[in-house]
Amino acid sequence: MRKAFSILLIFVILVSLAGCSEEWRRKFVRKKKDVAKKPRIYQTKKYTKEPTEALYTKHYNYAISWLSELVDDLGQNSKKDARCIEEALGQMRDVQLFLVPEKAKELDKHINRIKEVQDLILRRDLGHANIDYARRSVEREERFLRSEFYYNKIKKHMRKSFDEENADITEEAEAEEVLQREAAAKDG
To answer: Domain count of the chain?
Structure first.
């Protein structure tokens, strides 16, 4: 028995050294079947999203909220200050997207004032004087936003569509109307 076992062991060692073990294993192990994956087909559909009161008030309220939070917590945590000012600027830019270009330009100078405060915050240059300046600037811009850009006051200055082509067409139409009125005033 011992002799048969030693011969079998020698045979196994010789087979494995000869390289046949790999082929034996390949012969008796099941192969994985290649499943052809179906390609995913995505149909792109252009969704039209119109400016609505709900969307405008959402972005307006977020902008006011971020500015209020910045005023309340300014100088306590530099990361939170940076986050508040970035979010407030982003929401103000979103509010700007809802407005006709003339009214949006009116908001530009206020966004630039907020950017000045953002530069102070990102430079971490908030001493006592700068904190007071930043707080007063943010409070002033928040009050302005509350008094001049709430929905009931701004609804007549809302865009009809977010499409730039449509916005350009409405700008051209308005410019033509102004020219026609001026020409009618000169003739009349």
So the answer is: 1
